[in-house]
Design brief:
125 residues; mainly alpha
Length: 125
């Protein structure tokens, strides 16, 4: 008798866990790359032709947002590793239980970063 209502673990469960881990890796790399683009956007605006005639306010908003996205990408990668290892352990012992807390944390942080981007855009208009 299995300790989980989902039944005993199958090879497809482990493969699905690995695909999920790889999705975490892809997403975290994308978030970090996006953070780099955001952080360099202010520099790009100052180097744009005509930038010497148009005085842009010197804010570090893009650098701060880029850093926040880079940190979020690193945290997302660490969460992916943790979830992969925990799920593999649970599958091996037939004790898998879905974990909604990690999803709530990632979703909340994503909303907060999105609000920070919107706030920075509204301030620059």
């Amino acid at each position: 008798m299995s300790a989980t209502p989902f039944g005993p673990s199958k090879p497809t469960d482990y493969l699905a866990n690995e695909r999920t881990f790889l999705a975490y890796v892809r997403t975290s790399l994308s978030v970090m790359a996006f953070g780099f683009v955001i952080s360099r956007f202010g520099l790009f605006l100052r180097m744009f032709p005509g930038g010497e005639t148009v005085k842009l306010p010197q804010t570090n908003t893009s650098e701060g947002l880029g850093l926040a996205f880079g940190i979020f990408g690193c945290l997302l990668a660490m969460l992916g590793v943790w979830r992969f290892l925990a799920t593999t352990r649970d599958l091996a012992h037939d004790q898998f239980r879905p974990n909604a807390i990690a999803n709530v944390i990632v979703g909340s942080l994503t909303v907060l970063l999105g609000l920070a981007v919107v706030a920075s855009l509204l301030r620059l208009l």
